[in-house]
Amino acid sequence: MKSKINFTINGKQTSVEVNLEMPLLWVIRDELNLKGTKFGCGRAMCGACSVHVDGELVRSCSFAIKRAQGKSITTIEGLSESEENLHPIQQAWIDENVLQCGYCQTGFMMAGAKLIEEFSDPTDEDIKANISNICRCGTHPRIISAIKRAASLKKSNS
Amino acid sequence: MKAFSLLFMGFLTFFVISASNPKLDKAPSFNDSIDQLRPESSSEARNTAGLFPTNEEEKNKSLLAFDVILKVLKDPRCINCHPTDDRPRQGDDQHLHLFNVRRGKTNQGGPIQFCSGCHGDDNNVYSGVPGAPHWGLAPKSMGWLGLSDYEIGQKFISKSSNGQRSPEALAKHMTEDALVLWGWNPGENRKPVQVPFEEFKKAVADWLDNGAHVPSK
Prior knowledge:
The complex is a heterodimer of chains A (158) and B (217).
Chain A: E1 2-9, E2 12-19, H1 24-31, E3 50-53, E4 56-59, E5 72-74, H2 88-95, H3 105-118, H4 124-130, H5 140-157
Chain B: H1 2-20, H2 34-37, H3 43-49, H4 56-73, H5 76-79, E1 89-90, E2 95-96, H6 149-157, H7 167-176, H8 178-181, H9 197-209
Antiparallel strand pairs in B: 1-2
Helix pairs in contact in B: 4-9, 7-9
């Protein structure tokens, strides 16, 4: 049975009429046509589907849409206000040329964006201990460098 | 006069025993809730002392019932989130929770990965991730993993480590809390708690009604 759910996504008030158990990921990709968030494993294991819900890092494949009622969701498309004013994590990803295939990277960037809110000067250990996303291309060394760079950019911007 | 004194002493003895022994007031029924089973007369004594006076037979009944309770406390569905360290466990083999999940400041994970990032108020039918209300770790003082039956019993009954719970409150928590009850409804590909719930509920009632005893050393 379909029900109406109201929430904000990337700053815009939105409503969808879907099965309440539908994963937020499917709503983001298939109902709202925001394709930056990726389906990886569908089991909350890999982190490719990571988004922010009310500022918290969430694996959207394991987040039933009924939990989104009244919440504020941010996807990779809403991380920065414009392409001219990128979020530090986006700028750092470009600067460090992190991507290989790129599929998992938006999930890593959402996790990294959350991490630099909590750690102003993250160490390798801070990053390894708190981000559990998986990259099959093995770009982790560049991801670590980019997160450190993003933290530095964030500090210099503030 | 002597006969009258004996009769008076008899009444007095009956009154004292009745007031301290709930089994004389009401026999527990299989379908009674814990509150229904709790005799009002002994409530204050249990709340202050944790235990109330019982004879050896009742103590043994209480300890036998606690053996059943221990099976539940030590079941992976329960003890996996009652670690004595800061890492929840997963699965029947009780491996460390994947993703380096940790207790955090509030027993809810963090600072980046919180329990609620994957676990909702119910089992997720798409991802298979388990869920129940207030999903998270039990406070560290309530950690049981790796402890002996005696140590678990002491932590279980002591208000300083059990969240200031009286035996009645423990019984209510064990038989009514939604997160505890999840253990019997853990979703696909997970074994429920191995003691049937009705058996567990009866054991909790028997444990409580016979003095809320825990194993001694």
